[in-house]
Design brief:
five-stranded parallel beta sheet; alpha/beta; two-stranded antiparallel sheet; 3 helices
Length: 139
C-alpha cells in the first residue's frame, strides 16, 4: 500500500536455509526386509531463531521462504512436515517452503528475484551468496 491506495506491490522477501531453524538428524525406516531408507528430519527446533525471524517478518512486513536442498537429503514432504510442526508448536514465520536440487540452483536464481533482500544461512556458507548473504545475528 502506498499513500493509502491498494497496490500490487510485493513484500520484500528473505530466504532462510533450513539449517538455521533447527538441529538436523536422520531417521531410518524400513521399506522391506533388505531395504532401509534414511531421510532428514529436524531433531530439535531452534526456537530463538524462529522467534527472531517471526519478529523481523512482523516488524518489517517481510515474506520469508524456508529453503532446503535435495542434495542434503531433504524432500518436499519432509520440509512440509517441518512447516506443520512449526505451525502447531510455535508461531511459524515462514510463508512457504521450497526444496532446491542443491545450493547452486538457489544461487543461480538470486539475480532474477527483484524483491529478494537476502539469504540467511550458516556462517561457513554465507559467502557463496555474494551480496545476498546475511547472517541471522547481523539483521
Amino acid at each position: 500500500m502506498k499513500n493509502g491506495d491498494i497496490s500490487n506491490e510485493t513484500s520484500p522477501k528473505i530466504v532462510v536455509v533450513i539449517d538455521i531453524v533447527g538441529t538436523l538428524g536422520e531417521e531410518e525406516t524400513r521399506k522391506n526386509i533388505l531395504q532401509k531408507e534414511r531421510r532428514k528430519v529436524i531433531k530439535t527446533l531452534n526456537l530463538a531463531s524462529v522467534s527472531q525471524l517471526w519478529t523481523l517478518a512482523n516488524k518489517y512486513g517481510l515474506s520469508i521462504e524456508l529453503a532446503a536442498f535435495e542434495s542434503d537429503g531433504w524432500t518436499q514432504d519432509a520440509v512440509d512436515k517441518v512447516m506443520m510442526t512449526l505451525e502447531r508448536r510455535v508461531a511459524n514465520p515462514f510463508n512457504y517452503a521450497e526444496v532446491y536440487a542443491d545450493i547452486d540452483e538457489l544461487i543461480s536464481m538470486l539475480p532474477y528475484r527483484p524483491n529478494l533482500k537476502g539469504v540467511i544461512d550458516l556462517p561457513e556458507r554465507i559467502a557463496r551468496y555474494g551480496s545476498y548473504g546475511v547472517e541471522l545475528n547481523n539483521l
